[in-house]
Amino acid sequence: MTVAGGQLVSAEDKVLSVPAVVAKVRPSVVTILSRGAPASPLPHSAQSGSGSGIIIDQTGYILTNNHLVEGVKSLVVGLHTGRLTPGRVVARDFLLDLALVKITAEDLVPATLNQRAHLEIGETVIAIGNPLALKGGSTVTVGVVSALDRSVLTPNGETLYNLIQTDAAINPGNSGGPLVDLHGEVVGINVAIAPSAQAISYAITLESVYAHIQSMILRGAVTRPDFGFTPVTVTPSLAASFGLEADHGILVLNVDPTKTGAQAGLQSGDVITALDQHQIYNLGDFWHSVMREGEPRTMQLTVQGKSGLSTVILQRPSSQRVSQ
User: Fold this and answer.
1) Pick from 152, 154, 149, 129: which is nearest to 140 by CA?
2) pLDDT category, 245, cuts 50, 70, 90?
3) Could you say which of 44, 52, 67, 181 is catalytic?
4) Residues ≥6 apart with Cβ < 8 Å to 201
5) CA nearest neighbour of 130 among 82, 79, 174
6) pLDDT, tens only, 140-167
7) What pTM value is reported for the model?
8) According to DSSP H, which parts of the chain are helical?
9) Is 97 a catalytic site residue?
10) What does the mean pLDDT of the chain come to?
11) Is 78:30 a contact under the CB 8 Å cutoff?
12) Sign of torsion over alpha carbons 98, 100, 106, 107
């Protein structure tokens, strides 16, 4: 199984020393330089417009964070050799905080990706990136997996799920760079720090997003089930504009009468506040709950409508839509 020519190998490969891991992975780490500030910069992102990325394919695909490239006017990618080359964003997803950048260059060194489900708390991991856009190439920090399956709320009101927590030092500019195990394989993409704490950093686990990366390569976006309506996170301003009774959840808009949502009884203006009795606060909550099982299934929604609270039974369709 490959990522557009990249490599996926087993975790049984030889355990390497930290210097050997760095020598293996560092040629695949790039610097992302942008003109124009990100539309919604996160506290952990580089305010100067710089971040990191990882080459995943010899043809020039680079994996990085969405918050680094959202709203930017142009990109320049700094390679391990010191060469600067133009890049373009070919796919991104704000709910996963992932983006794909494409460059044209020769002799690229793709990293080895590991989507294994066997990370252990306490095992050594290495963060590689270009914090603060320092001259001289990427910086290396070492730590352990402190916890697994973390979730954090971002400043834009969405939730990131399935995160690796590590005490490897992450600084502005590390975002988008790889978290690597002692096999020299990328197990996560560094994404956030806890600003009020020390030695608490987070990475998106490759295990949870590998299929989405494939979709971004093949289709230009992540695919999610098509319920026939547009889901929007309820914010205080949105609640005031629409006169909503609910102060959190997912506002249902643009209901297609021929599709699953309308057939279940959903109407434009309804607010989904819970799914299978789990509270829903934003789009991240909604899609995480919907996608937590692979097969089509029936879901119980709690809906705040014009006539009050009701329960709606919604079947997840097998058909997909491209999610922007």
Assistant:
1) 129
2) confident
3) 67
4) 127, 143, 165, 166, 167, 168, 169, 170, 190, 192, 193, 194
5) 174
6) 999 999 999 999 888 777 889 999 999 9
7) 0.85
8) 18-25, 66-69, 206-219, 236-242, 260-264, 283-290
9) yes
10) 86
11) yes
12) positive
How much is the pLDDT for 40?
43
Enumerate helices (H) and strands (E) in the chain, giving the number of each.
6, 22
CA 294 distance to own-chain centroid: 19
Q: Taking phi first (over 0 means left), then psi (-120 to 50 degrees means alpha), and beta for anything else, what does residue 205 get?
A: beta
- Dist. CA 139–CA 134, nearest whole Å: 9
Question: Taking Cα atoms as reference points, which of 101, 103, 123, 105 lies closest to residue 114?
Answer: 123
Which residues is 203 bridged to in the sheet? 164, 190
Q: Out of 28, 50, 146, 175, which one is annotated catalytic?
A: 175
Q: Which of 28, 34, 50, 97 is catalytic?
A: 97
pLDDT in tens, 167-190: 998 887 888 999 999 999 999 999
Q: How many residues does the chain have?
A: 324
Place of tokens 């297609």: 256
Q: Residues of the chain with pLDDT > 90: what percent?
A: 56
